Amino acid sequence: MTPATSPDARTRDWTRRSVLRTLGLGAVALAIPRGSAGTSAAIPVAVQLYSVREDCRADFDAALAAVAAMGFAGVEFAGYYHYENRPADLRKRLDDLNLRAAGTHLRTSAFDDANMARTIDFHQAIGCRFLIVPGDPAFTDPEKSRALAELFNGTAARLKPLGMACGFHNHQSEFATDGAKTWWDLFAERTTPDVILQQDCGWTTMAGLDPAALIRKHPGRTKSTHFKPVVLPQHAQARKPLLGEDSVDWAAVYAACVEAGGTEWIVVEQEEYPDGRSPMDCTRRSLAGLRKILAGGNRRPIAARAGTRRP
Questions:
Q1: Are 102 and 165 in contact (CB under 8 A)?
Q2: Following DSSP, what letter does each residue of 55-101 receive, concatenated?
Q3: How confident is the model over 254-265, as pLDDT tens digits?
Q4: Structurally, how many domains does the chain consist of?
Q5: Secondary structure of 162-221 in HEC code, one letter for each residue
Q6: Residues near 289 by Cβ (< 8 Å), separated by ≥ 6?
Q7: 71-109 burial by CB neighbour count: b if 16+ within 10 A, else e?
Q8: Is 146 within the bounds of a domain?
Q9: Nearest CA to 47 among 113, 110, 114, 1?
Q10: Which of 33, 284, 297, 310 is placed for a possible disulfide with 292 were both Cys, Cβ 3.0 to 4.6 Å?
């Protein structure tokens, strides 16, 4: 997503293959092991509404109905349109469509003392637990990055008793290095485990890193993650930015979410619209592609991604 202007133990005997075998072709809520042996829960799939932002601007209610009809379990917000000051009405709309608030993207200023009470009240009212910042210049600023991390630590501590959490969403710039470490790793080191590292696996791939390896490097921190299809330059003629047709090994990413990430939401983000298709159509096609991948029907290796850096 373009920057906004707007713990659990795993049963060790679940391998990537056995996890994927549990999935049905039509499943959107994905069964994975969670908690103690013999128990299970599901990773639901949401859509980041930035994917269909023009539809949202034109008719937000209709856009919500359309993504619900596709089979998404939830939505991640990138603005609230005419519901900006009507959280109870938005919650009713979500309930009527059998959608959940998987999270939201908002500015860092939402965590300021002057705004925090309203931020909490609004998101509690709509049932939204995960408050994610999709970019802040301070993240890669040598003089401001520590203070930003401390702001997230303080916010996470305030949100935790309420069953909520805050986090940060990457683009490519967060993987630039400050000395021997990337800014992403520095932020992870400077923040508590309660701060979510919402990895956008598409941008991670474009930065030359392995998103699955990065999830495993910071276990339990990927409570929410973006499955955004991207095409690497060497694949430009053969692939498309649609899940299952792109350059990312999503089966490996999903396995890392299951085995190490503590992932509670997978969020589909469709940022490109190939073949002249509409955002809604491309989002629908990516959801279908994700279902196929997780059912084991498309596990294309990414051997051509030579030179990919492991974190």
A1: no
A2: HHHH-HHHHHHHHHHHT-SEEEES--GGGTT-HHHHHHHHHHTT-EE
A3: 999 999 999 999
A4: 1
A5: HCCEEEEECCCHHHCEECCEEHHHHHHHHCCCCCEEECEHHHHHHCCECHHHHHHHCCCC
A6: 229, 242, 243, 244, 245, 298
A7: bbbbbbbbbbbebeeebeebbebbeebebbbbbbbbbbe
A8: no
A9: 1
A10: 297
57 in a structural domain: no
pLDDT band of 53, cuts 50, 70, 90: very high
Residue owning tokens 């699955």: 212
**The token pair that represents 191 in the structure block:** 């923040």
Joined together, the tokens standing for residue 282 give: 């491309």
Q: Which tokens in the block code for residue 187?
A: 């932020």
- Domain-located, residue 249: yes
Query: How far is residue 182's CA from residue 188's CA, in Å, rounded to a whole number?
Result: 10
Residue 252: domain span: 8-39+199-300
Measured distance CA(12)–CA(94) in Å, rounded: 36
Q: Cα-Cα-Cα-Cα dihedral of 132, 76, 93, 125, to 10°?
A: -20
Structural domain contains residue 18: yes
CA 141, 268, 276: angle at the middle one, nearest 5? Answer: 100
Distance of CA 155 to the CA centre of its chain: 20
In 3D, which of 63, 69, 108, 110 has the Cα closest to residue 83? Answer: 63
